[in-house]
Write a structure and sequence with these properties.
It is a single chain. This protein folds into three domains: about 325 residues, no CATH class; about 90 residues, no CATH class; about 80 residues, OB fold (Dihydrolipoamide Acetyltransferase, E2P). Helices cover about 45% and strands about 25% of the residues. It has 16 helices and 22 strands. The strands form four sheets. Strands 2, 3, 4, 5, 6, 10, 11, 14 and 15 form a nine-stranded mixed β-sheet that branches. Strands 17, 18, 19, 20, 21 and 22 form a six-stranded mixed β-sheet that branches. A five-stranded antiparallel β-sheet has the order 9-12-1-16-13, with helices on both faces. The radius of gyration is 29 Å and the shape is flat.
Length: about 575
Amino acid sequence: MANRFALTYHNFTEMKELINKYIGGVQKHRLKIETLTPVAIRNGEILSPLTDYHIEGNRLYLLDTDKLMADIDQNNWLDDFESKVLEYSGNHSGGTETNAKKKNRFIADFLKEKGASIKSYLKEENARNCQLKSEAEWVQLHSTIKTENKAYIPGSSIKGAIRTAIMYQWLTDTEEGKEKLASFLDTNKKGIENWAEKINRKTKGNKNNAKKKDEITKELKKEETERKAELLKLLHEFEEEVANAVFGKSEGEYNASTYFKISDSHVFKISDLRIASLQKKYREDEELKEKRKKEFTTSLQEFIDKGKETVIEISVSNLSLDWRENRGCTYFAKCIKERKQLDKVFEAINSLSRDFLEFEICRLNAFKESEKSKTSYSKENLDIYHNMLENLYNQLKENNLNSAITCIGFGKSIFMNTVLLVIRTENYGIFTNIVKVLHASHPRAEHFPFSYYATSIDSQDYPLGWVKITDINKDAYQQEYDLPDFKRANLEKDSIIQGVLLELNPIPKVQVSIDGEKQYLNANGLSKLKKESGVIPQIGATCSLQITAIKEGEIKDIKIIEV
């Protein structure tokens, strides 16, 4: 009987290996995403304090607008309502603090005048924690992406970060990539240089001829508009060439992403969301800062709070035919095929983030030094921002190949989206000329980027979008656990054995040792156990397991009875 089982088990294992080799299989990676700073991935929805939300203390409530408008119509209040809206919305930028306060209590005041109460229209269950520096900032509210009113991180945001990082790594680390970049720069150097020189001449004329200053400024803006479109087209075409070289061109239904799929994350709790003021921080001299303030309207932003966690899943095809080079998936295919893990992906993400942070920290140090010179730069919030970047950089240095730190969503730097950072590193002269063309009318083009977005929490400003990604499975599966070994011949239904919890969702998975070999089994009973004991188990915890089904020595079903 034992020999018969051994043969059966051997054949089954061999067959499984053949299936994975020739038919294919999918390797799944469960990734934990931790928000290091507030994260906002906008869904395009903008809410107004006049019709969509109401702030009471430190809570922001969405309004049941359907019920509200139905009651306004039924009670013949529509004309009065429209008149009040026009009266309160005269200054769309928020205006004075007085106007802002009026806007915030608009609905409450209007209903009170009509003998009604706003409480009957508040969606209490969806209230958000809301902390504002001043009531003057109670203006338009930008929402973050949700499904069934619950926020999540789209798989496309993580895929975009991976795409940019892999392209960056190819350009900086491979001979093919370096040659591609050098060729692009050599081909376009002269043209970009000529554009920049033309702008320089006009800029000098602007400085030396006060009478024609307005006229020259208009010419610069025209030049900026015309050349900017050409330059952006040039950069976009280069990025597409790089993407085709790294990920391969689409062939019919095929492209690289077909065999590298990223799910949307698990949803966050309502309590994980916050509302705060969104501001634009300028790293320029005081004069320019005051002028540019007028171009940005402070608003509110809904975001996933810092220190929150969720999970996504990456599915990678194990079939070598899916990754064959003749399908065009060259560099990326090798990254996946050779390492059989996400090490190379994490390495690429961390490389881009590390270079960006070094660049930003260096710039901020230069700003601080410039305060000692005749040109004074605004110091507001620079120290806080600098410390946060230093902290992120230190976390990167401590990272292993099992995790990565990157920036996603609204507010991330342009350098986390494009090839500009690698151009800057490779040839600073060309980079400077590119910036001059993109910002021809700006008097401080050499100091690009000029600003960053931040949101305020507990009177402290935070940059947006920084997250840490960790491969949960790899971390748990690669650890060595001191487990008791059980003999297959002694196992039967209702036998109690010990194992280690490796996964919690969507199906709990445990590791056990049978006849000296590690086995990974799906396990039931965890939800019931958590409900009865109130204990929330952790990955890596030792647990007692009851065998509920076994056939010819092979465990078919097992239940967690204690953690």
